[in-house]
Amino acid sequence: MGATAEHDVEQLRARLNDYMARHGLRSTEQRRLVTEMFFASRDHLSIEELLDRVRIEEPRIGYATVYRTLKLLKDCGLAFERHFGDGVSRYEVAWADEHHDHLICTECEKIIEFEDSDIEELQHNVAQRLGFNLTRHKLELYGICAGCQAKE
Amino acid sequence: MGATAEHDVEQLRARLNDYMARHGLRSTEQRRLVTEMFFASRDHLSIEELLDRVRIEEPRIGYATVYRTLKLLKDCGLAFERHFGDGVSRYEVAWADEHHDHLICTECEKIIEFEDSDIEELQHNVAQRLGFNLTRHKLELYGICAGCQAKE
DNA sequence: TTAGGTGCAAACGTTTTGCAACTTG
DNA sequence: CAAGTTGCAAAACGTTTGCACCTAA
Known about the structure:
DNA-binding
């Protein structure tokens, strides 16, 4: 755990607990384990990848639990679900202080995250012009990364 | 068929025939039917919707054929595959002279297409800055459309 | 004590594949 | 006639669900 660029995990826990309390949901051992593992992840995890990590600590967890827990996190806005072309759903933590889009290399599958507030502003303009009240967006750029360009 | 805003279907056929010739693929009755129905579509078709349309003309076509034909069209760059959140893949024609993104109402599922060259320019800037050679992108804006806002 | 959660396995819906029969070039 | 294509049905895939048992509050 470095000292820089830490996100506020405590805030996520608080938001989750709040949501669970409001909905009469319970804080179980499995749920805590799955959410903590998820909050600690830095990637775009598939259910299976997350399950693998969780099972290191508690091998008896079934994957229905992971599905259900991620659905919960999605519902309370703490996880985003992404689809990058292969058949699987991937999830990433919805940090309160961060929004980013994705730049994906179609050769090596590397995924770079970026933020561009100019683009976001233009998106809001477009939506407004067409009468929409914008809630979220998804921007994915596909191309060949510098490394793969050099290899060719 | 109106006189305005016609796309060049002939060009699509030429590109397809070229691709098939280069890869030793054959022009069958089914393939022609599926591709023509697809080229004539204006929407984001699911496999099932396309199959329904095709079966009006030729009821004996199986859906594996439609899947395989759309994979072919995808491979030669004449069709784009889209995922809008429900489980199904949707396809749209990759017109050479057109590019657009999507604005999706999360209430009524209405999909509006738009183009914004300013956004596209910024996308290219971002990609360039990160060393990528951009080949395509996907931008989806989600929100509530004017009609659904009024209803609430 | 009871509403909610878990783990398993079966069910689900979409997509892919193996194969024998058929077509295209 | 050789190689590609089709239609069917079965398999595969990721995901969801029903249920009996368990557990947090």
